[in-house]
Design brief:
Elements (H helix, E strand, L loop, with lengths): L2 H20 L16 H20 L5 H23 L9 H21 L3
Helix pairs in contact: 1-2, 2-3, 2-4, 3-4
Length: about 120
Amino acid sequence: MPEGNAWRRVALVTAVVLVGSLVPVPFERRPEFGRFGPDKLLHLLGYAGLAASLADALDGGRPRRRTDLAAALLAAAFGLAVGRLQRRVPGRRDEPADTVAGALGAVLAVVVRSRRGGR
């Protein structure tokens, strides 16, 4: 993939994750979900996509382990920042389980990526 397209994909995935995380929620959280509602899967998948796209964009012939680590850390840091922003959005909360799900998704994405063929 040409380098410009890789960064466009990062921008697109980042925008989707950001907008999806900051849209006000008009309904209350369902108590039966407890800590691990279905939104945790969305966090896992969203941040996995972000980390994978970041790793592809950062991969300019550099060692894959280094780009994978950077991508996972950047995606997880973005998740922390989005959590802080959610505090100001009606119906949203900065939930530690969301942050964990996002970080886990980021790590899983780069682990899968590195197992597919690494340098």
